[in-house]
Each structure stands twice: as C-alpha cells, then as structure tokens.
Amino acid sequence: MDIQDLKNKSIRELHELLAEKRNELRELRFKVSEKQLKNVSEIKKVRKTVAQVLTIIKASNKAEQK
After folding, report:
1. What's the CA gap between 3 and 59, in Å, rounded?
2. pTM, whole model, 2 decimals?
3. Residue 14's closest CA among 45, 54, 61, 64?
4. What fold does the segment set 3-65 form as a domain?
C-alpha cells in the first residue's frame, strides 16, 4: 500500500487497517513457526505497513491538537 493512499484515509479507516494488518502479521508469524510460510519477506512488508499507519495516525493526532 502506498503512503499517499494511507494519508488520504480517515482515522477510522486507518484504525481498521491497523487491526487488519496486525492480525495478518500474527497469522504470518504462526505460519513461520509451523514452517508453512514460503515467502518470509511478507512479514517485513506487513510490519512496514503497520509502522506507516501508526506514523500517520500520530501525525494527524498532533495536527488536531494544534
């Protein structure tokens, strides 16, 4: 997901996406532990998306406070 797409979403949508990606990350970690996941780099992509979403949420919260 592109950073510009994330910036255009509402806070509510970002929180929903965050919950979805965290759930996906948990499932990927289970698959790694069971040796079912072939593409381990998928975890890195999901972690990056989670970090981007959190950054945008915090930035928008700071902007609202000012």
Report:
1. 13
2. 0.89
3. 54
4. Helix Hairpins (1.10.287)
**Measured between alpha carbons, how far is 13 from 15 in angstroms, rounded to an integer?**
5
Q: Give residue for tokens 């780099």.
A: 41
Nearest CA-CA partner of 53 in 10, 23, 44, 66: 10
Cβ neighbors of 40 (< 8 A, separation 6 or more) are 32
Written as six digits, the tokens of 30 are 């289970």
Cα–Cα distance, 14 to 22 (Å, whole number): 12
pLDDT tens by residue, the chain, 66 residues: 789 999 999 999 999 999 999 999 999 999 999 999 889 999 999 999 999 999 999 999 998 887
Q: What is the DSSP letter of 1?
A: -
Structure tokens at 51: 């970090």
